[in-house]
Each structure stands twice: as C-alpha cells, then as structure tokens.
C-alpha cells in the first residue's frame, strides 16, 4: 500500500464515489473537482482526513487543499478512482455548468487577466524600483537635494533602461489583453497580437498626448475620416476589440470552406476587427473606461471617500471568496491610465496583509498544535506575499473569527490609506512588498496603514479567541 492510498480511498468515499466525479484536476496545492452532486460530498468528513488541510467551493469547483504533495496524491487518487486525466480547461468548462450569469462573466474576466498578471506584477515592481532611485530626494552634501539617479550615472542608466520594460507592460497593455482573449476563445493568437499592436502603433497619436494635442491626425478615405488615436494602457477598448475579432473568426470558420480557410479567415476577420476597433469600439470603450474610473476616483476622493474605503476594505476579502475581485484589475488599470496612479490597489495590498496577520495570531494561539502549523505558517507567508486563498480557506474561514478580525483591520487601514491619498503607480505584489509600488510621496502613510493592517487583526483575533465566539469555534472544530 502506497503512502497516499489510504487517504485517497477515504477522499473518494467521502466525495461520493467515482460516479459523482465529473472532472478532476489539480493546481499547485489543491485538488479541483467538478461534482455531479455537490451535496453528496461529506465536507466535514473530508476535512478530517489527515492529508486534507481544508476545502472550499469556488467558481463551480469543489476544491480540496492538499499542499505541496498534491501532484503525487492526485496520481494515486485518479488510479484508485478510475477517473481519466482532465486538463484545467476541461475542468473550467465543466465547472461553468454550475455557474450563474454573474459567475460566468467574472470567470471570463478572470481568464483574460490571469495570464497577464505576472507581467503586471513585474511591471509594478520595476516602477517601484524606479520610484526609489529616481523619485526620492536625498541630501547629497554640497550638491544639495538630488535623487540617487541624479548622483550616479549607473543608476541613471538603469532608471532609463527599466522604463523599456515598464513601457512594454503598461503602455502596450492592449496587446497582452487581445492576445489573452484570443487564447481564451481558442482563436488564432497571433491575430490577437496583431490587433493589439494596431491599437498602440507608433504611427498613432499616443493616448497620453490626446488631451494636449493641437490637432489630431486622421486617415482620409475621401468620403470619411478616421482619427488616428492610439489606445495605450486602455483596457475596455482592447477587451471589446479582442472579442469582436474572436467571434468574427469563430463565425468565419463555420461558413468558409476549410480548404481556403487559412487564407480567407484571417483576412476577413482581422481587417473588419481593426476597422471596427478604431471607428466604433475604441471611442466607446474609451468613454466607458473613463466613466468607470471617474466614478471610482470621485467616490474615493469625495467627502464620503472614507466610507467607500471602509466598505471596500471590509468587502475585498469576501470578494476573493466569490471571485469578483478579478474585476478590480480592469478598474485599477483604467485608473492608472487616467490619473497616473491608482488609489484602489493599495487597499487590496492592505487587505491581504490583514488576513495574513489574522493567521499569524492563530499561529500564536495554536502554537502547540503542530498539525495546524503545517497549514497556518505557509498560509501566513503566502498571504504576506499577496496570495490569500491558503489563509482564507485553510484557517480564517474555518474558524471565522480571524476572518472577521482581518476584514475589520483591513477596513481601518483602508480608511487611513484613502484618507491620506495613498496612491500606487501600478499593480504590484499584493502584500508587504507592495510598498514598492506606492508613489514616493505616499510611502510613509502607506507604511502607517500597513502597521494598522498588521496590528489590529492580530490583537482582535487574540481577543475574539477568548470570547464566546472564539470558544464556540474551537468547540465546533473539536479543538477543545
């Protein structure tokens, strides 16, 4: 009998047997099931299996947290269960059968942005480093106040060089978005890339220069003129254009004979898509994006900004549970484009830190529970580095009171952040390293908010653990 045979047999039995499994796959730490009947799974019994560190349901998938051993466990489980190996795409498609309209929409948005998040995070770190060497004035003795870059040719060269990457990620963002859409829709990815390039081509007037331009160049067709405006860093126009190209290609593949499809499908899909993008979707998407960013920015900077901040700080972690947090990526990017920074993203980083601090409090409270330490310690580290799911599902939601301590601390920290105008240059690592993405003028107040996000959830979790709420949670989990 192998190491994973017994827990695999237990999981198969408690999940409802092979007949209840529609699709199963795994990610870095979790088994992902699409079940025919979710109610047939005995969640409490599954969580009592020694190898299992927690369960949750998200995006139509029942997920079982195993940890770093998940790949080996998965191989043993599928062998015992007699279920075939399924790809993550298969799992996503099957899971959508269990989703409502809003969940499907959020899932689509997540599938667009998830592949490009690594680039956005890298871009945020690069802009943060440029902040440090090119934006902070320091006393250089007889030369007075200068930045590090002003005082060092090497750092000046590095500052200029790093913008090459920052520009590629953020100004040329539409290219990544249209590629991600073609990838998600299963259409020709290189056409998505070409479409994105036509939105940011150097021959177009840069989107950042439109407001101050004396005149706007145009294509003259005799009977009509089309403004030659670029959509650098614009999100909505790229999303709309990407879907038009994808659906055009899908439709054309159905009506054009396969023998000539390689020639005519790309031709009749790309040219109309580019034309529609510049004539219709670009201007409309620009207006929609500007409206959304203006509403969010006005709400955050108004007299009631503190209330908006408190609600958002309180609600962000619950949004992660529902998957709705993926929608904030588009808003953040639009704010960056329209206002040269985002007030929203710092609150996300603070929320992640707050949930991690609640886990740290649980590590302290349960310091004698070696089994739980195996889940809580990695979860806290992960949370502080911007990935909250292990902390939320493995610890905080299981006990509940640390979860509420976390969102309370997050709300207070968010009020401080918004109240003092803390702004990030870009999306970055959504945890403690997120300080690198904050604009230089706001780093000190972000650090103050970050201390609040660390201290308040920790203290509140320890206090709640001693109340009836905490005692009931321990008793419910059989910890005391």
TrEMBL record:
InterPro entries: Glu_permease_IIB, PTrfase_EIIB_Cys, PTS_EIIC, PTS_EIIC_1, PTS_IIB_1, PTS_IIBC_treh, PTS_Sugar-Specific_Components. GO terms for biological process: phosphoenolpyruvate-dependent sugar phosphotransferase system. It holds the Pfam family PTS_EIIC. PROSITE patterns: PTS_EIIB_TYPE_1, PTS_EIIB_TYPE_1_CYS, PTS_EIIC_TYPE_1. GO terms for cellular component: plasma membrane. Residues 5-87 form the PTS EIIB type-1 domain. Residues 107-476 form the PTS EIIC type-1 domain. It is a multi-pass membrane protein. The keyword Phosphoprotein does not apply. The chain crosses the membrane at residues 109-129, 161-181, 190-211, 231-252, 259-284, 304-324, 344-365, 377-396, 403-423, 443-465. Its EC number is 2.7.1.201. It is found in: Cell membrane. One of its GO terms (molecular function) is trehalose transmembrane transporter activity. Its main location: membrane. Gene3D superfamilies: Glucose permease domain IIB. Keywords: Cell membrane, Kinase, Membrane, Phosphotransferase system, Sugar transport, Transferase, Transmembrane, Transmembrane helix, Transport. The active site is at residue 27. This is PTS trehalose transporter subunit IIBC. It comes from Gracilibacillus oryzae.
